[in-house]
Amino acid sequence: MSSTIKCVILDDEILAISYLKLLCEQIENVEVIKAFNDPKIFLSEINSIDCDLCILDIEMPGMTGLQVAELISDSKKIIFTTAYKEYAAEAFDLNVVDYVRKPIKKERLIQAFEKVKEINAHSQKKDFIEWNTNIGKTIIFTEQIAYIKTSEIDSRDKEITLKDNSTIVLKNLNFKSLLEMLPSKDFAQVNKKEIIAISAIKVFSTNEIITTLVSEGENFLKLQIGDTYKTHLLEIFGK
After folding, report:
1. Cross-strand bridge partners of residue 155
2. Which numeric CATH code is attached to 5-122?
3. In the chain, what is the straight-line distance between the N-terminal and C-terminal CA atoms, in Å?
4. Residue 1, CA distances (Å) to 81, 93, 119, 209 in order
5. Which of 63, 80, 137, 142 could form a disulfide linkage to 39, CB 3.0–4.6 angstroms apart?
6. Half-sphere exposure (Cβ direction) of 17: Cα atoms closer than 13 Å
7. What pLDDT digit, counting tens, does each position of 24-63 carry?
8. Could you tell me which CATH class the domain 128-236 is placed in?
């Protein structure tokens, strides 16, 4: 995989596009392939463009960046840009790489691209995760991970339960990016807020998974299967 990040820009303001392109040109190993100021034209062409990343403005007339992201988030990494802070939670729910406030500063944009590079690097070596956690920069071997859930304190963070029942919190990382770091044959997303290691599944039914993990009251932890994730789980088990 090339170390150069190939990106496409979507923003309804021409001046904003020009400024963002100028910033990108000043950052090493970043290449702007194309820029759009119309979401509909962007959507009609994006699948035929060779790019790693889409930088989307959120506030656009006719169609928001959030709506655009819902249509492409399965195939492209996304960074949102916006002048409005109230979209932050919704943006992270869409499993985007980062959320950058306008006016965009070069240093902040570099941080966002560094996240993309880390995710790209992890997609090639999936035996461990190296990420910022509640105890600092940490290496976690994926074979030791039993269960992952969205943090109840901050939805941007993900709480990992290891096989020895200890926990660690990954800071500011969404499920889409996290799943790209994990071996796909060993992990599955069960619903919007939970991922389970296949080795930690005790019983699997149409709507529920019973795990090998003990929850409160010494009962085995049960997970509800979201409708969106049923097909993939059935494929894993050859159903």
Report:
1. none
2. 3.40.50.2300
3. 34
4. 26, 28, 12, 36
5. 63
6. 17
7. 999 999 999 999 999 999 999 998 999 989 999 999 999 9
8. mainly beta
